[in-house]
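Task: fold both queries, return tokens.
Query 1:
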Amino acid sequence: MLVEAERLSRATGLAFEVIACDPALADTAQFCEAYGYALADSANTIVVVGKSEPRVYAVCLVLADSRLDVNGEVRRHLGTRKASFASAEETEELTGMVIGGVTVVGVPAELPVWIDARVMERTSIVLGGGGRDRKLVAPPAWLLGRPQATPGATVEVVEGLAKR
């Protein structure tokens, strides 16, 4: 994952920072409290699943002070009648990452990445680092370079993907 992040930095020309953290404090609220970051400057990476045959998946990035609109905007984007959060097992199987460390960097190219528009308003964001022992801090524009870092990947900024 850090190799993908470094490739992304070269592709975008924007730097990122890696912050080591206690894996027991990797969940966003605990991390922010322990390390002094605001929830409004932190983002959660969430894998969602459209309940259809075959199942369809996407990766969403929303600010930690927001709630992902799974039954509205996410479901519409997936094009399914029902949608939900992917299980921890599905998330790990699809991304190779465990909850608390999931990041949009390095996810398989076949998983579309949808970023809530509010994320792009921040100066920088804290997001998962690929494992529970680290976080990444980067300007949101850095995320838009992901297609160059992961060939074939798609990234879309979505208005209203999350609610406050």
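Query 1 returned. Query 2:
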Amino acid sequence: MSVDDANGELVDEVDIDDRVLRVVPRSVMRRDRLRHRAVFVAVTDGEGRLLVHRRSDGKDVWPGWFDIAVGGVVASGESYESAATREVAEEVGVTDAECEVLDAGRARSYDDDQVSLLGRCFRVCHPGPFQFSDGEITEAWWSPMEDVEAMIRRESFLPDSLALLWPLLRPSD
């Protein structure tokens, strides 16, 4: 059983216009690749560095891959903003985070053979220290933004984070 499925969490299946169709267990959402809500939160230090991490091998999708965001699935009935704040607290132990909206409040879709979702993007500026107590992150480090681009070309990074969040963070050419 994955780390995520162990708690029996419920999620909203939504249509492309972000209207709730029904409430389902997270395991059903994953099994049937149902469209759901998700949040992506970039953690920066205010000095041009991004917190990059490797996901636990127990994750239910893309285990062990690298990511540029903390975040995840929005629980049934939860707002995107509340989910972003909750995920930052759960994944990196920052409970006083102010999540800055990066996407003008508009959820965008992402679909591939693993997931179907509507995602919202945020940023938190916090220098740490961080606590990775929920088991979702196995290692994390600060990386200058320009170095992240090269790492993305070399390693397996979560494609949904790259598609939705990275264009909002990426250093301009």
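Both queries returned. Flag for query 2: The radius of gyration is 15 Å.
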